[in-house]
Design a protein that fits this description.
Elements lengths: L1 E3 L4 E2 H9 L5 H8 L9 H18 E3 L6 E3 H7 L4
Antiparallel strand pairs: 1-2, 3-4
């Protein structure tokens, strides 16, 4: 789906850019031209960026004591707020 009509940027292009390391709106603007003209797509682009960051942070949580990845579901088992 098109997110930025001015620059012809799709949500797939934004997702690919974020997964390749562009993790800020400034970087997306430089690379893709998103929100570079009218700014009408800024909120939607930000939502996609935040959605990806949240999904990445929820997929693997680092165990602070061991420094190893812990599945997200295990976080609730071992670190519950009792």
């Amino acid at each position: 789906m098109y997110v930025c009509l001015c620059s012809g940027v799709t949500d797939s292009q934004i997702r690919a850019a974020v997964q390749s390391g562009d993790n800020s709106l400034r970087q997306l603007k430089r690379k893709l031209g998103v929100a570079a003209q009218c700014g009408g797509c800024l909120d939607h682009a930000r939502d996609i960026l935040n959605e990806i960051k949240l999904a990445e942070s929820n997929s693997t949580i680092t165990d602070r004591t061991l420094g190893s990845p812990v599945p997200a579901f295990a976080n609730s088992l071992f670190y519950s707020a009792a």
